[in-house]
Amino acid sequence: MSQTQSAAQRATQSTDVTIENLSLSFGTTEVLKGIDLTIGRGEFFTFLGPSGSGKSTLLRAIAGFGPRPSGRILIGGEEVTRLPPWKRNLGMVFQSYALWPHMTVRRNVAFGLEERKLPREEIRRRVEAALELVGLLDLAERRPSQLSGGQQQRVALARTIVVEPRVLLLDEPLSNLDANLRVQMRREILDLQRKLSLTTIFVTHDQEEANTTSDRIAVLNDGVLQQVGSPVELYDRPANLFVAGFLGTANVLEGRVEAQAGRPLFRTADGIEVPLIEGPDGPCSIVFRPQNLVIVAEGGEPAGGAGAVKLSGVVRHREFLGSIIRYAVEVAGNVILVDDSHQRGQVTLDAGEPADLFFNPDEVVALAG
Amino acid sequence: MTSFSRRQWAPGAVGLLLAAFLVVFLVVPVVKVIFVAFQDPNTGAVTLINFVDFFNTSLFRDSFVNSLYVAGTSVIVASVIALPLAYFTTRFNFGGAVLIQTLGIIPLIMPPFVGAVAMQLLLGPNGSVNLLLDEWFGINIPFMEGLNGVVLVESVHYFPFILINLSAALNNIDQAMEESAQNLGSSGLRLFRRIVFPLAMPGYVAGASLVFLKVFDDLGTPLLLNINTMLAPQAYLRISSIGISDPMGYVISVILVAFSLFSLWVSLLTLRGKDYATVQKGGGGLRKRDLRPWEKAGCYAVVVLILLLVLSPHIGLMLLSFGTVWSYSVLPDAYTVDHYLRVFGTASQYITNTLLYAGLAGLADVILGTAIAYIVWRTGLAGRKWLDYVGMGAVAIPGVVLGIGYLRTFYDFQVPVIDKPLASWWVIIVVALAVRRLPYALRACVAALQQVSEMLEEAAENLGATKARTVWRITVPLMSGGILAGFVTSFATASVELSATIMLVSAESDAPLAYGIYEFMQSASGRGPGAALGIIAVVIVGIGTYVSHRVIERGRRERAPDVALAAGV
């Protein structure tokens, strides 16, 4: 009862985050270069990027750690850029959980409330509610060292949400867990976030984690924001080659687009031609996914419908991945990956065999440059 | 990590206070000593005349040569004691390993000068061993004659530095280093010379240079053995008998500091870039082999012999403290507790003073150490590294030099209210002890702070704790084991320090244990009570060491290693 009440309370506390032209350097190394972002109230938002992309630095800058950035960070309209971490009321869960080993679980969770000088009775009540929420009430008197990785993760979550932060910041919280637990914990985190409607920023380098949890994702590379969008948008309409390659597997061909008979035609230096639905003029790359191609033995039945593009090549190698078989096919000097869904008893092509590839032009994304 | 400059006024103020303390009580006195050494006593002009005088006086030349000889020979004798022990524990599956580890600490919990008199009674020309040798074989070995005595006492006391460093170095050599050499065709002595020896060398040199430094600077041992023709005793005697304006004490101080710096420099030089830790995951130490029975017997014989030698000061002191008369006999004539009664009855101020001084000095050291460690490793203050360098620099300043510096600097400074020169107020002894022991406490605190992941502090700040609250609730509690270790090291070594104290004690009622022991040992009738005081010192230090060991172990067990690892990312 009181729990749903405080959940409702938190929902009203939850707020939006705006980042304006944020740049940050470690010494002379620029790690964030002019980031602009708006994160909506109650959104599950992910910073995705490879290591060194600046995603953790950005999260830490929001929390108030690290060198002072230039630009502005606004939480619910209030500028916090110059506030010290302890005045921001943003809850952060650290990659290694950062549970204090000299305190019990209960004292770890109570810490933030004690710092806020709340009455003892209220602290007790809220600590127990938070531990109840993550299902660890019976382990309250243990030390962090006596808990499993997943339990430590839950204590870290409870310790953070018990102070009712305006925003929940998660810095690769799943990376220290084994694979099975990781899937379970990301589900739990998402459920918790939905229950509390807490604006959440999640940092990860794992695209699967990002795709399965996020409302929206910001892809970062080299301190530059590459693209912001829902997981499907990023996958289907990558704004650049980095996003295309980082989310899923992509075939990329470089060439030029020229108008031919009023329609744009993409052509590589090696003579591969792909008619496009739309595309920029001039130098251009096209991107298409392995699962959107159909592979048949040379001279086999054409596939992919009337407008399908056909490319001919030779199978270089084949990988069996369980649900699919992935072929690498060499077409005029370019290696193109093709996924064929695997059925029992299916005939496969071997390395060295000639093959035809078919795909629909509307599966192709053309990127200028 | 860089922090917001606006929030740095608090650490800045603390940093300035620390810097002021170090400048006033370490830099200024030492600089003053050096300055006076290069000053003409009559005109005040800068000159080398004092050094010329020094080397033109045969007494000082002899003292200089003797000090070098004693320090050098002590390194050799200490190596002879330490090498077999290090070798046995690291190369063989040897049951005596625990014994040897204990051996490595026992000498350190008793100051060398305390054992000096006891060793004279055991090993001197008319001591127990020589009486027995004379009776059985008709020979007399001059263990304790002249400089030999100093060398023996110092070696027995300081060999653990070599043992500890060398064993650590040998344990850091991975089996794979040895195996890959064998795989490539090397074996036996050649393998030892080309692989094991070079890898273990830095550890050995580090230990050896520490022994050299300690022996070269030691004042108490030669004084108690009545050897005055060495540098430190000469400095003390010149200042205490001729006065603080005599330039020779300052010249000797400069030479002592120069050699201290030199041996530190040598150890840094060998260690730099050679901090080999070649142990891979799952590895650990050279391959050990089992001993054949006769080898085992030999090993035990060597270990027991060394153990007896190492424990001889303790055994002798114990006998002396409980014996009635002990002269020209193998053992005391009879046993009594009178010495202890006398000590507790008439000399208990030595004990209370020591507990007070060493306790305050230890406390000051961990507070200074924690503050310096935090400022150096957790803030972006300009020049913060200098706090660390200067604090550690105290290691190179012999106690005699600091004592002379304090006398020179603070004699004219009248402490308000009590109306007495600062140099003769008991507090100056505490300050001297604190400055002398600061390097140990500082290293312990730095190591402790480095064990605390910054993330643990950030987590507290994220949950609303200010920097100060975070230090109080997270950083210091997590450092507590290391801080305690630092305190005990400072306390234990301060409670038996003599060289700076002996120059600064101005009244018997202000004197600590070490001084009391020295006073008692001056007369034959005082030896018994002196030994009793020595045993009390050993007990105090021993209890302190044991308690801290227990507390640290308990703390370690409470926190699991895996969390410490996870948090230490």
Outline of the structure:
The complex is a heterodimer of chains A (369) and B (569). Chain A has 369 residues and is of the alpha+beta class.
List keywords for this structure.
heterodimer, A: 369 residues, alpha+beta, Rossmann fold, 2 domains, six-stranded mixed β-sheet, five-stranded antiparallel β-sheet, 9 helices, disordered N terminus, B: 569 residues, mainly alpha, 24 helices, 73% helix, globular
Question: Mind explaining what this structure looks like?
Answer:
- The complex is a heterodimer of chains A (369) and B (569).
- Chain A has helices at 2-13, 55-63, 105-115, 120-133, 149-161, 179-196, 207-213, 231-236, 241-246, and strands spanning 17-26, 29-39, 44-48, 70-75, 78-79, 90-93, 167-171, 200-204, 216-221, 224-229, 251-260, 263-267, 273-275, 282-288, 294-297, 309-320, 324-331, 334-341, 354-359, 365-368.
- Chain A contains nine helices and 20 strands.
- Chain A folds into two domains: 2-244, Rossmann fold, CATH 3.40.50.300; 249-368, Nucleic acid-binding proteins (OB fold (Dihydrolipoamide Acetyltransferase, E2P), Beta Barrel), CATH 2.40.50.
- In chain A, strand 7 (167-171), helix 6 and strand 8 form a beta-alpha-beta unit.
- Chain B has a domain at 1-47 and 337-569: MetI-like (MetI-like fold).
- In chain B, strand 3 and strand 4 (420-421) form a beta hairpin.
- In chain B, helix 3 (58-91) packs parallel to helix 7 (147-171), helix 19 (454-462) packs antiparallel against helix 20 (467-494) and helix 20 (467-494) runs antiparallel to helix 23 (527-558).
- Classes of the chains: A alpha+beta (369), B mainly alpha (569).
- At the A-B interface, strand 6, helix 3 and helix 5 of A face helix 19, helix 20 and helix 24 of B.
